[in-house]
# Entry
Amino acid sequence: MKKIIISFFIAALLLCGCVQKEILDDVNLETGVGYDLVKEKIRGTALVPVYQPDKSVDNKTFTASSKLSRDFLNDVQRQSPDPIVTGSLEVVLFGKELSERGILDLIDSFQRDPSVGAGLYLAVVDGESKKIIQGNYGNRGTAIFISNLIRHNMLTKDVPKTNLQLFLSDFYQIGKTSYLPQLKKKGKNQIMISGISLFKYGKVVDTIPGNKMFFFKLLVDNYSEGTTEVKIGKEIAAIQSVQSKNDFKLSRSPRNEVDITLKINAILNEFSGNKVTKKEVGEIEKKFKKDVERECMQMTERFQKQKIDPIGLGHFVKSKTRNFDIKKWWREDYPKLKVNIKADVTITESGVIE
# Structure
């Protein structure tokens, strides 16, 4: 017994000796990276925060071009006086041209890196990612600002939940396609989420604009908050979705029809009219219901024409169908699938009246 215990401790000591030690003061922590396609090469821009004595953060960047992401990291290491490590990576951005060419190889490199967390935020940039990575936003560092921007809009606004793990899960899921938020530079030191980029085989093929993101999230995620406008004649009502849930139901036979029910509990935040009566609230509910059903129906038809499925209808039908044939699904069944959208809207209270 003693020999076994001694052997165990010796093995543990040997294994500990194999771990490379990294002292924080002696390394550069990469917190963000952007990739762009430039002259058929991948240009990477690594972001390293430099913490000042007054607790402010300077953003230092290193840029290199190569055909492989691993070559990029090696080239960047040659520019840095200290080793660059990826253990604190917050965000990875992909330029528009590169995203349309395909980003799976780059994402795979992060998937295989054990120091990179599964909650890493990914985003597409409307333009070049380098311009956003090199910007200065706030006093906590660019990468923290961007990750907080994405997180905040996922939790309380119109961006559906996604990260490295969820993106890859959707990609490998049979009968589902991936999506990522799209960022856009708004001013010298301002950026915004401008839409949702939709993928097919790892390439961006379409984008949901900012004013349609509310309806897209209703289809693919559950809401905790979110806002949209409803027009009633000349008046405008600002609606806040407090809670939403989507439910799918497949027809029994033939199995070529899916009913999607969107249950929405909302608050009337503002109304441009003089007063809000029960009658007005009822009219707003009806108009909101009609808007949701129309917009979501148009989206599903748009996805079917492009043979992309961010909603996951194929995955849902597969879970209800024996001997599901994915090739036949994409080729024949999905384009002909009948989708019915029904919105169940309840406005629970009214707020500010102009």
About this structure: Residues 115 and 132 are 24 Å apart (CA to CA). Confidence is low (pLDDT under 50) at residues 16-25.
